[in-house]
Amino acid sequence: MKDCTTRRSLFRAVVFTTLLLGLAVGSAPAQGTTSDSVVKATAKASKPDDKGNQNVTITLDITDNRYHLYANPVGNDSLKSTQTTVRFTSKLEGNAKVEYPEGKLIKDDVVGDYKIYEGTVTIKAKVRRTKGDTSPLALTIKLQACTKSTCLLPATVKLTAE
What we know:
This protein is an alpha+beta fold. The chain has one domain (about 1-160): Immunoglobulin-like. The chain is built from 1 helix and 11 strands. It has one helix spanning about 1-25; strands at about 40-45, 55-60, 70, 85-90, 95-100, 105, 115, 120-130, 135-145, 145, 155-160. The strands form 3 sheets. A 4-stranded antiparallel sheet has the order 1-2-8-5, with no helix packed on it. A 4-stranded antiparallel sheet has the order 6-7-3-10, with no helix packed on it. The longest helix has 24 residues, at about 1-25. The radius of gyration is 19 Å and the shape is elongated.
């Protein structure tokens, strides 16, 4: 019985290590291909109100249905570095409030449960512009696209919301 438990633990460790390596560098078929090759990202912003408040809608369209993105929050500490994140690079008053949609829960006995995005994802944000700033709003989106067995290289997509 102990031998069976040891083999099972060793198998899980090998599978987990392989998954993490795949997340970090991609596998042979996907090596060199970045995640933004299967995701179309757009951003639209409302006009700032008299106080500089602005609503932003970010849309991520996963163009290849074999792929998913890791949700935010991903719900698994070992996958936290792969979760989708939005950062505003324009100067703002205070921090942006980003509202990520709930991801689809994936049950995984090897790495543990986690959440993903599939298809089209809409992320909402509220920002306050610095006084008098009417320039386009710059932001970045960090994402990683994966199938059930392989991951593309992570990508940081730069967008301008107008």
